[in-house]
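Components:
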Amino acid sequence: MSEARSETRAERIALVDVNSFYVSCERAFDPKLAGIPVVVLSNNDGCVVARSDEAKALGIKTGTPWFQLAAGAARAGLVQRSSNYELYGDMSSRVMQLLGRYALWQEVYSIDESFLGLAGTPVELAAQGAEIRSAVARHTGLPVCVGIGPTKTLAKFANRIAKQNRHLGGVCNLETMEPAVVETIMSRVPVTGLWGVGSRLGAKLAAMGIETVADLKAADPALIRRKFSVILQRTVLELNGTPCIPTEDERADRKQLIFSRSFAAPVTTAAEMRQVMSIYAQQAAARLEREGQLAGVITAYAGTSRFSERAASFPSVTVRLPAPTADPVVLSRAAISALEGQVVEGVAYTKAGVMLTDLSPAGAQPLLDVFVPEQEHRHLGELLGKVTDKYGAASIGLGLGGISASKPEWTMARRYSSPRYTTEWAELPVVKAR
Ligand SMILES: [Mg+2]
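Structure:
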């Protein structure tokens, strides 16, 4: 590293990502799970959705049905947990809130990843990365890795290097490494290790002789645009240090959907915030609808600028919905009521967001479900009325609601769930002092 290089101050991008997020949330409250193979299961305890490194080392793949693992679990020392999206959503917003304090700007990218704008010399930036990492560990108990680079693609790549090389201590700033070392690493990582390059695209690139990150970096951007897309062309430019991937306000992957924006003018009243929540929830609902998915848990949050005098004004509430839904009315009602009473009049809120988690495919819902929002079974109400008029009140009912007043969770197997440590008074962790 040359001296001149290390002294240049610049604005850079950091990508902070929680290691094995779901498993790490479980471990934060149950230290017995540290260092052992742990898997988190999907709804109804069906199959593996998250694995600790130790579980990966056992060769367990994402998507493996639990019944295939159950018999051998005890022998392998494998521990399972049901997915606890209330806990994950709440831990996520705590992490994001904390990260925002360190950043010039913040883009929450997924439930456990955020891009941050940082400024400093390469050495200062690496120090900031280390500080962020220890602050998250101290305040939430979650381990993160920090990748720093001049573009989002390089920040993502640096994060991968930080994750895979323990001796780096969880932080990798490409600009504090010798350029020759970075080149060597890039020539060893397959192109599919890059953000946005899946296996199918990887196969097409391999057919053109582009197999590694270094190969793609050296490719002709114009050719890549012609043969593939403007998106992959951006990746090539970003690998060469030119930022060209814009801030995304709306995105989805298999795990969650986030709709988040900064406001042009600050929001200062609860009434305005209700409008914002309603609009964002409807946008998120429209996206769910397009993706053919339903959400089980919603997190609504609002934030102030980092220059705000009232640093504590960052309301964030996570609630489980009565039933999985993509209904815009239900989602906006939930988002509004989540932040009800949390917004302080007169505080200048500069951003807000809605995050939907516990996503499931829309077709998976039973047709006659008492928890389907009212406007979807409007006609059923009419029909039920006619039947009970004729045959009596006990003659027919909607799902469990016809017989008992059980909670919706009742319908779903979550046998191995940890408590909702951070969102339910009755389930708070208890600490005993001697
Ligand atoms: Mg992660």
